[in-house]
Amino acid sequence: MNTLKGIGFFFDPESIAIIGASPTSGKASHVILENLKRIGYKGSIYPVNPKYEHIDGMKCYASIADIGEQVDVAIFVLPASKVLDILKGPVENIRGVIIISSGFREVEKGKLLEEELKMIAEEKGIRIIGPNCLGIYDAIYGVDTFLVPTEHVKRPKKGGLSILTQSGSFAVLIMDEMATEGIGVARIVSYGNKVDVDEADCLDLLADDEDTRYVLLYIESVENGREFVDAASRCAAKKPVIAIKVGRGEAGMHAARSHTGAMGGKYEIYRAAFRKAGIIEVDGYEGLKDACRVLDAYDIVDGNKVLIITDGGGIGVSMADACEDFGLDVKRLSSSSKNNLSTRLPAFSAMDNPIDLTASAKDDDYFTALEEGFMNGYDLAIVTVLWGAPALTAGVVGRIYEVQTRYNKPVIICSPGGEFTRNMYRLFEEKGMPVFSTPEAAVRAAAVLTGRGTVRDNILKGAGPWI
Amino acid sequence: MDMKVVDNIINNVLNEGRHHLLETEAKALISQWDIPVPNSILIKGTEYQEIGMDRIKPPFVLKVVSKDILHKTEVGGVISDLRDRDDVRNAVIRMRRDLEENVPQARIEGFLLEEFVSRGVEVIIGGMRDPQFGPVIMFGTGGVMVELMKDVSFRLAPLDQRESMAMMEELRGYPLLTGYRGSKSVDRELLASIIMKVSDIITKIEEIREIEINPLFVYEDGVMAVDTRVILELEER
Lengths: 467, 237
Hints:
The complex is a heterodimer of chains A (about 475) and B (about 240).
Chain A: E1 15-19, H1 28-38, E2 44-48, E3 54-55, E4 58-59, H2 64-67, E5 71-76, H3 80-88, E6 94-99, H4 111-124, E7 127-129, E8 135-138, E9 143-144, E10 158-165, H5 168-181, E11 185-190, H6 199-207, E12 214-219, H7 225-236, E13 241-245, H8 259-263, H9 266-277, E14 280-281, H10 284-297, E15 306-310, H11 313-325, H12 335-342, E16 350-351, E17 355-356, H13 363-375, E18 380-384, H14 395-407, E19 411-414, H15 419-430, E20 435-436, H16 439-460
Parallel strand pairs in A: 1-2, 1-5, 5-6, 6-7, 10-11, 10-12, 12-13, 13-14, 15-17, 15-18, 18-19, 19-20
Antiparallel strand pairs in A: 3-4, 8-9, 8-11, 16-17
Helix pairs in contact in A: 3-4, 6-7, 7-9, 10-16, 11-16, 13-14
Chain B: H1 3-15, H2 23-31, E1 40-43, E2 60-65, E3 78-82, H3 85-102, E4 110-115, E5 121-130, E6 134-141, H4 144-149, E7 152-156, H5 161-169, H6 175-178, H7 188-204, E8 208-219, E9 222-225, E10 228-232
Antiparallel strand pairs in B: 1-4, 2-3, 2-4, 5-6, 5-8, 6-7, 8-9, 8-10
Helix pairs in contact in B: 5-7
Catalytic activity (chain A): acetate + ATP + CoA = acetyl-CoA + ADP + phosphate
Enzyme class (chain A): ligase
Organism (chain A): Methanolobus vulcani
């Protein structure tokens, strides 16, 4: 039995029925069947379809009642009206359903069907994920209801990220990206129209989920706003929660009579809700990918004093500018640190913050500068490595890593450049240090960490998660 | 605050089938939370011949009180810089005449005679009830800044001191509050407490759909709610 509460059985079901199962390769229901086998799902699988006696060598059942056993999760890949017909019949042995099928609220004639679906589920005490969704990918317990073939969309390895999303297509592409980036995933839930299970249910679950280290939310709209804020607050009190809000143009209060009503579009209210819950909002697709990469690498940062080290002056300056914009503290070097460094760094280095090692930079200079900073109050560092410096070798990666692990403070690598530079990314990533190809991306990632630091500090002070 | 007084105000408005509180009602409401409003007296129908002006000090501003008039200035419903009883009497007569001409159908409850308040840093504090997220608070630097620059910040109510301070700090107009070009810094902790009071009002009184103090003047050592609007939920109860 797993340690997940409430809707936890969806993620670790002892049995799964596929309603509308098909033996035809390439059909959605068959893809799901194959994916469940491939991920090594350990429970019983019951294909259900009156047309077949066997599917892929498994006994196929004429109906849900025919299974004769408790079914934890029934997956529906049938037309909307058919789903309802079946759920109206004998389904006492079902605990939860995932309705992949579309044709509900998202289309005009499906609105009534969805209302009816909601009523039936409440009456019969069945929990529902969907409709119009992909369901669950659980790398920890081995469940995969996504109907996309693995040849087209890779599955991520096991890890600490859990993703909650309304959009199925977002679930698919982020899963593929995470797999390619090498970022591990615990659970992905695509809940579509959320007729029953919504983001608040999932956040409650993930708050206490030991396998989930951090959470990514993809939000189009939230219906139960206060429940969402409460659940997200509980979750953010324990682990980083980041969110991207799409559809920002939505109008605010209808027919507002005051400035207050007229000034606030709906997006401003979502932002206020994120702040209240201690959710860190990320901007755009790049922003959320970068946030995942940095949260995958580092847990904690103690403050927002950032040390910038570079071997190119120009990029150091633009980075310092970006830090200001994101509210990071580019604290000046103390005079004792300047003294310490002046005897040990290349003659023309700029001993301030940023520390500019210039193109004379050697591997050891990075070590020296970074250690001086971490010994003297800096909470994190953004280290720019431009490979134009002739004396630099691959050994610089190890030297930076030594300081990073010794002081256990986040080091974010910024390394813009072409082919040679990009080939070197792997070396940093193997040491668990995320690399960014632009100063803006590096700073934005640093701001995710410090934003999380603020949330955690607020919680420790007993002042709520809000930022 | 005395919730009985508050309930009476709200129920009276609803019983009359209105959704907008009169300025006098809105100010009476926020006064229950000790938000400072200008000293004033209400001059009813024919009383203007014998105005008891002992409780307030000149100069005065005269404003029409009418459930039918939302934008007072446009119809001649605000006259300022009144020094004495004669000024006030003449102003009442002139305002009656102008209103009769501009908005003949408007029902006049009376005239609000307020002490003129000296200009402070202008801010706006608002609250509204969002269907999904419930009460939301807005804070902005007032006047042109709010209309032109949309220099406002939002938080979900209820909010605490730290959130209220953060709402100010994130505005581009924040230097107006901390002292700018020789002007003195305003009492930001007091201002934060007013933001929290507005948050408390909209959180406690579920009938309120929108509330707005605009402008609130903020000084080195005080605040003053110059105008206040309260709009109740439009659904029938």
